[in-house]
Write a structure and sequence with these properties.
L,D-transpeptidase catalytic domain-like; 39% strand; mainly beta; 125 residues; 7 strands
Length: 125
Amino acid sequence: MRFTVGRDQVSTVDAKTKKMTVERDGKVIKTLPITAGAPGTETYNGTMVVSEKHTVTRMNSDMVGFGGEYDIKDVPHAMRLSTSGTFIHGNYWSGRPTFGSVNASHGCIGLFDQRGGGDSSTPGA
């Protein structure tokens, strides 16, 4: 039996340096500034696999145990990394200076994006 698997793409996030490196077929194709989990809500550390992709989705803090801290109806380019609610997603509400300089999320990995996500491409894809 033969089959072909798609491209080999790995994104490595470093919450300390606030950067994500994207490698495709063993070659670095992008390094992007990110924001990760703030102190007290640090991003899970380990190997994760994208299990869902959403062009736009709603994220509500009640659903992951943070009470009424946030309810964002139009989170762009969201990709689920864990069953507990860890996502990598576009973020338009934090402002560009946040990315690469401050870990400010509730555990998700955020990449600068525009409201609605602009085109249908996925950050880092």
